[in-house]
Design brief:
Keywords: Membrane, Signal, Transmembrane, Transmembrane helix. One of its GO terms (molecular function) is carbohydrate binding. With about 300 residues, the protein is α/β, with parallel strands linked by helices. The protein is built from 10 helices and 12 strands. It binds beta-D-fucofuranose.
């Protein structure tokens, strides 16, 4: 890739593009696939990647970004753990003259010029798809229908928007009631723990579980089985992501539906960096197209699944 201002020639060294990427953590299989995709795509390109994992700490993301400024990277990309609190650090980056690409989750800032583009999924639509699935699945089941919700990380875009989309759709049925809703940080361990507490409080009045990601759903399945109920039968389960493990549970009938959220954003990120360096104007929002899995489509998909 040619860097603007540098002529190619036998005696001219091409300066590699330096990309600093602040990954928010390694809390889920989605995240691990996302990290791998970004590392692989960078390796295949002429971009050198500086990678930092913040282990779900916004403070550590700030430290990573500051270290990228010090190292004078060409571009900074951030997958932000939560939406709020980014304005001051993004101003520091702007002052240093480094462009920012937000990936996966969004930041809430009053000045939209603080980042160039946001690459990621439509989480609100994912929540709506989950809600529609539940409406369809229970269309002929008389209420009351008790629902519990495992939310992701508090204050994170996917958790806020998936919850909003889901709640809006299910209000169509006045005999649907959300009995419990709590954050479980997108992890297997907390998913299991929080589901156990839901079961202790609500027992067999729980007919539906909406989990904001697969890892929490897998944890919840263990809690449900330990409680003596059948996941996918006594409790309808709908989850988001589409990891291999979740698709396997879908095929076993222990999860009823999985809304897809694609973690393979590496190619999109590298393309965006290259286009930006080439001086092209990027759209403010780059959305990744996604679908929803049922038992039938899961069987088809699982053979080629990379995560
Ligand atoms: O759904 C979840 C992960 O931000 C879209 O974060 C991502 C979410 C994903 O922990 O599994």
């Amino acid at each position: 890739k040619q860097v603007p201002g540098l002529k190619t020639g036998t005696n001219i060294q091409k300066r590699p593009i330096l990309l600093g990427f602040s990954q928010l953590g390694s809390e889920s299989d989605w995240r691990k696939a996302n990290t791998l995709s970004i590392k692989e795509s960078a390796e295949e390109s002429e971009i050198s990647l500086l990678f930092e994992n913040a282990e779900q700490s916004q403070e550590r993301q700030f430290e990573a970004v500051r270290s990228f400024i010090k190292q004078k990277v060409d571009v900074i990309s951030i997958a932000p753990v939560v939406e709020k609190g980014w304005e001051p650090i993004l101003k520091e980056v702007k002052q240093a003259g480094i462009p920012v690409i937000i990936i996966d989750r969004l930041v809430e800032v009053s000045d939209p010029s603080l980042y160039v583009t946001f690459i990621g999924s439509d989480f609100y639509e994912e929540g709506r798809k989950a809600g529609k699935y539940v409406l369809d699945k229970l269309a002929n089941t008389p209420g009351p229908i008790g629902i519990v919700e495992l939310k992701g990380t508090e204050g994170s875009t996917p958790s806020i928007a998936r919850g909003k989309g889901f709640h809006e759709v299910i209000t169509k049925r006045t005999d649907f009631a959300v009995l419990e809703s709590a954050n479980a940080d997108f992890t297997f361990t907390q998913g299991k723990e929080v589901m156990r507490s839901f079961l202790q409080a609500r027992g067999t009045s729980i007919r539906v579980l909406f989990s904001h990601n697969d890892d929490m759903a897998l944890g919840a399945i263990e809690a449900i089985e330990e409680y003596g109920l059948r996941p996918g039968k006594d409790i309808v389960i709908v989850s988001v992501d589409g990891t291999r493990k979740a698709l396997e549970k879908l095929m076993e009938g222990k999860i009823n539906s999985v809304v897809e959220c694609n973690p393979l954003l590496g190619p999109n990120l590298i393309q965006a960096v290259n286009e930006m360096i080439d001086g092209r104007t990027l759209p403010k929002r780059i959305v990744t197209p996604e679908s929803i899995f049922t038992e039938v489509t899961a069987a088809r998909e699982i053979g080629t699944r990379r995560y």
